[in-house]
Amino acid sequence: MDALFEYSNQLISEVDTAFIRYSYHRINWQNRLIGLVGPRGVGKTTLVLQYIKSNLNIHQTLYVTAEDFYFAKNRLTDLADSFVKSGGKYLFIDEIHKYPDWSKELKLIYDYHKNLKVVFTGSSVLDIKKGSSDLSRRAVVYTMQGLSFREYLALFHQTEVPKFSLEQILNHQVDAPQIPHPLPLFNDYLKKGYYPFAIEDDFDLRLQQVVNQTLESDIPTYADMNVATGRKLKQLLAIVAESVPFKPNMSKIAEILNISRNNIADYLLYMEEAGMVVQLRNETGGIRGLGKVDKVYLDNTNLVYNLAKENQNAGNVRETFFLNQLRTEHQVVSSSIADFKIDTTDFEVGGKNKGLKQIKNAEKGFVVKADIERGFLNTIPLWHFGLMY
């Protein structure tokens, strides 16, 4: 256990607290059992280490990763018991889904140790959702996504821009004199600004590793797939990547991939929960969001540029960005007259020459243009929607 403390203290001391992700202030850290989930590479580990460094007594705190060899011979419950007996109060467990029966043991830890606060993180959102049923009424689970354009400006360019609500954006209340020429920065963000690790070298290679790990390990392990089926996931993701955007035709996909059409909806759902794709549903699903899937997009624009290489479509990139950024605060569905709908407002997304034809019959409609710096009337710059979190 001494080795665990040594590793924990080293990581905590080395973490940089200059830039803090949006999720940090949304989490109620006073809860006894907190889950933080999200796709690989969005900064969950850094966030919990920053919280420890800024707020907790290091002598009462332990950070471990469930991938540690320690857990090959030791149980989480035993670790928690020893930790509490030595005066421990705050236990952080990273990559929890790597630990067998993690949810049952967390439940026992929660019930046995009333004065211990536990935070766990997981990249395999599927597995976390499955395990969370054992922790209902106990764990509060937060979901974290990648950088907004606003966060990218802060991390990559040390430029602080305030947050703006959707209402403020639609009312042309965005005021960002800090970025007099936002479009070159915005275009860079679309290519390599969503994942915090893009600030390091070899971004494309690192992102490819995230994709491979997700499709070849996380999803197959969760869904009990064989290696060949994992390869089918990569083929399906490639099809989505080069579409404009992808409108699922189950029979056609089944033929291309040589699989049963009954499996495709499951595969897409697995990839959505793992942060690889997002499915745009129609509004018939109501509050539960179970409407029919109209389109499938890659989860974020960095994935489009990484996976589609030279075949990315400009319209697809714009729509992917809009959906990605708006979904953190709003339920986005497909529109019968435009690209997207949020509550009673329709949005048509396009380039600077996009006209008003699609929204002329809308009760409330806006055209969102990618290649303009400032908006007017019911025309809004696309980059403004990157300032919401």
SSE order in H/E notation? HEHEHEHEHEHHHHHHHEEHHEEEEE
Number of helices: 14
The neighbouring-strand order within the major sheet is 2-3-4-1-5
What is the helical fraction, as a range of percent?
Answer: 40-55%
Tell me the structural class: alpha/beta
Radius of gyration (CA) equals: 22 Å
Can I get a quick summary?
This protein has 389 residues and is an alpha/beta fold.
Can you put this structure into words, describing what you see?
- This protein has 389 residues and is an alpha/beta fold.
- It folds into two domains: 2-143, P-loop containing nucleotide triphosphate hydrolases (Rossmann fold, 3-Layer(aba) Sandwich); 149-387, no CATH class.
- It is 40% helix and 14% strand.
- It contains 14 helices and twelve strands.
- The chain has helices spanning 2-14, 44-55, 76-85, 102-112, 125-132, 149-157, 166-170, 182-192, 203-223, 227-241, 250-257, 261-273, 301-308, 314-326; strands spanning 33-37, 61-65, 90-94, 117-122, 140-143, 277-281, 293-298, 333-334, 340-342, 345-350, 365-369, 379-381.
- Strands 2-3-4-1-5 form a five-stranded parallel β-sheet, with helices on both faces.
- Helix 8 (182-192) packs across helix 13, helix 9 packs across helix 10 and helix 11 (250-257) crosses helix 12 (261-273).
- The longest helix is centred in the middle third of the chain and has 21 residues, at 203-223.
- It is globular and about 70 Å long.
- The mean pLDDT is 92.
